[in-house]
Amino acid sequence: MLDFFSRLSTSELVVWSIFIGIMIGACSIYYNKRIIGAFVRDLIKRGACDKDSALSLEELGYAKNRFVRHALRDGSVLRKMVWEADDNFTSDAAGVCFSARTKKMDLNTARFFIDESNRIKADMRYSAKGTDFITLVIAVVVFFVASYALLLFIPYIGELLGKISG
After folding, report:
1. DSSP per residue over 63-103, as a string?
2. Closest Cα to residue 65, out of 78, 48, 83, 53?
3. What is the pLDDT of residues 94-131, one digit of tens each?
4. Cα 94 to chain center, whole Å?
5. In whole angstroms, what is the distance from residue 8 CA to residue 155 CA?
6. 3 state SS of 55
7. How many C-beta atoms lie closer than 10 Å to residue 95's C-beta?
8. Using N-to-C axis directions, what is the helix angle for 37-45 and 116-125, rounded to 10°?
9. How far apart are CA 75 and CA 72, in angstroms?
10. Residue 56 phi, psi (nearest 5)
11. Confidence at residue 88, expressed as pLDDT on a 0 to 100 scale
């Protein structure tokens, strides 16, 4: 494996590293918008906006979804927008609300909601616009072709820069 990397030039390593970084970012966006976003959109659509209307993972159909269960762990980005009905809310000096949990959350019985102050932010962050699987595949293909084309033209660009600089 290391022999493969030793045969690549520095410019090839840089281009392929950028390509891999862009692909990881595209997959991360797809995961957030499609998998986690579906959970958030279901909470909003079903009207879970306070402790009284909070819904469990079972009621939402996500009881066995490992991705959603993992995303709901304490301290995650999702948990900054999705509250549990048993959370004790406190606020800091700036008026920012946060949960002061006294016991470990049981995801099998926990009931979740998105309060009105976080609804718009959650809706924007987890909207499904432009994040279908076809878009992801097209992005991978386009960036692969662009990376490969860039590698083909790097020697010519180097020559051109050498002629310009004298």
Report:
1. TT-HHHHHHTSTTSTGGGTPEETTPPEEE-TT--EEE---S
2. 78
3. 555 555 555 677 888 889 999 888 888 888 888 877 67
4. 27
5. 14
6. strand
7. 6
8. 140
9. 8
10. -85, 165
11. 65
Alpha-carbon distance 164 to 158, whole Å? 10
Tokens 């609804």 — which residue? 119
- Phi, psi (rounded to 5 degrees) for 97: -80, 145
Residue type for 44, please? I
Separation of alpha carbons 49 and 83, rounded Å? 9
Threshold 0.85, pTM exceeds: no
99 sits in the region (left: phi over 0; alpha: psi -120 to 50; else beta) called: beta
Q: Quickly tell me which residue has 């279901």 as its tokens.
A: 42
Six-digit token string for 159: 């020559």
Q: Which residues contact 55 (CB under 8 A, 6 or more apart)?
A: 43, 46, 48, 111, 112, 113
Residue 139 in tokens = 């992005």
